[in-house]
Amino acid sequence: MEIEMCIRGLMLDPATNMPIIVLKDVNSDAVLPIWVGVFEANAIALEIEKTSPPRPMTHDLLKNVIAGLGAVVDRIVITELRNDTFYACIWATRAGEPLCIDARPSDAIALAMRTDAPIYVDESVLASSKVATGGTGRITGDDLRRWLEGLNDDDLGRYRM
Asked: Does residue 123 belong to any structural domain of this protein?
């Protein structure tokens, strides 16, 4: 089963200073933190802030190529968590045929934001992420989850790199 998520915010991991996309279940308080690269976080931050760069970014190019090929992005799904790595699929339709395009979650999310496509997480990913560590060894996944769930809008603030 797929769970619809929304972007709750972007922040920096307090232990590693790596960007984190915080996804939140639209029907509950469950959150899913996903550590991403700096460039992907910046692409998402620009879209959150509705800032247009002077030239198209890679995710804008991908959106234009998909549209140019006559396809429509239907949704993105974070499909798997394996060895502390998230996997995603961009679901698109072309000529009535469904397409699943393998992608990094950060790229899929950046594209979803540009195409107004919904973001989903497979429920097995959400369940397994509850026992995963943040990759730091110093903070457990449950510790981070409790901390993230307790954040308010002022805590998240505006994302800066």
From this structure: yes
